[in-house]
Amino acid sequence: MPTAVVTGASRGIGSEFVVRLLESGWKVYAGYRSDKHRLELIDNENLFCYSLDVTDNKSIKNFCDKITDDVDLLINNAGVPDGRWRNISEIDDEWVLQVLNINSVGPVRMVRELYDKMNHDSLTTIAMISSLMGSIDDCHSGRSYAYRASKTALNMFSVAMKKEALEDNISFLILHPGWVKTRMGGEHAPVELSDSVEGMLNLIVNHTLDKSGRFVQYDGVDLPW
Ligand SMILES: NC(=O)c1ccc[n+]([C@@H]2O[C@H](COP(=O)([O-])OP(=O)(O)OC[C@H]3O[C@@H](n4cnc5c(N)ncnc54)[C@H](OP(=O)(O)O)[C@@H]3O)[C@@H](O)[C@H]2O)c1
After folding, report:
1. What is the dihedral of CA 119, 123, 128, 134, to 10 degrees?
2. Is the CB–ligand 1 distance for residue 8 below 6 Å?
3. Could you tell me if 218 and 200 are in contact, meaning their C-beta atoms sit under 8 angstroms apart?
């Protein structure tokens, strides 16, 4: 039975990944920050839920220490939006640093802590849940300063780490879920949660080492950097 780790699993995209992976026969270690939310409703012997704050190395270590299996898939999903400041003068630099801490550095901390639990004899996939908003080529409307920058940084961390990880059979996949109906995406988002996660899982299970560092949308469309 393959093993997956999902961060930010309490609700939205993370919780949908948990449900779908369990249905497909995976063992899942799910991290929730404070409240289990949707995880509370899932009754499955292959689900292990522990608290996890991706900004806190101690919390990460406690979470990872509970994982007794080799990890085949890490889904770095936890993320926050920015302040949606209207003007440059309104940018709150404390919150900018927090957004970068969660969205860009959090996934790197998870990779670092789990690296030795990734079985180097078989392929491990690290899925980074990024965003089209991290694309510099696509930044036509500007704004969302911290969120955009955090996802651009996440993309670069991923591409930069991929070289070293290739030697260890670890492949990065950088995913844009689409604009999805979640607390972050809002009710007017055009993409259903189920369609987004089904598409991303399809990309994950078909991912290979030679495609490491691919930046792709949930429906398989490759994205510009
Ligand atoms: N929805 C979209 O349209 C969209 C589009 C592009 C990319 N994305 C990306 O997709 C990912 C999931 O987004 P979503 O729409 O599902 O958002 P969501 O419904 O707001 O869920 C975000 C999840 O991240 C968790 N989280 C936040 N800070 C954390 C921390 N410090 N440590 C651990 N977990 C933390 C939240 O936990 P709590 O329950 O404790 O708050 C929650 O489980 C994010 O990375 C987001 O940037 C979303």
Report:
1. 140
2. yes
3. yes
- Tell me, rounded to whole angstroms, the distance of Cα 77 from its chain centroid: 2
Nearest CA to 65 among 47, 52, 46? 52
pLDDT 10s digits, 30-39: 999 999 999 9
Pocket of ligand 1, candidates 5, 6, 7, 11: which has the most ligand atoms within 8 Å of its Cβ, to mutate?
11
pLDDT value of residue 35: 97
- State whether the beta carbon of 53 lies less than 6 angstroms from ligand 1: yes
Closest by CA to 21, choosing from 53, 46, 56, 54, is 46
Beta strands (DSSP E) in 55-102 are 73-76
Q: How many CA atoms within 13 Å lie on the side-chain side of 15?
A: 17
Q: How many CA atoms lie within 13 A of 84 on its CB side?
A: 4
* Full-model pTM: 0.98
Q: End-to-end alpha-carbon separation of the chain, Å?
A: 35
Domain boundaries, given as residue ranges, for the chain: 3-217
Average model confidence (pLDDT) for the chain?
Answer: 97
DSSP for residue 180: B
**CATH superfamily, domain at 3-217:** NAD(P)-binding Rossmann-like Domain (3.40.50.720)
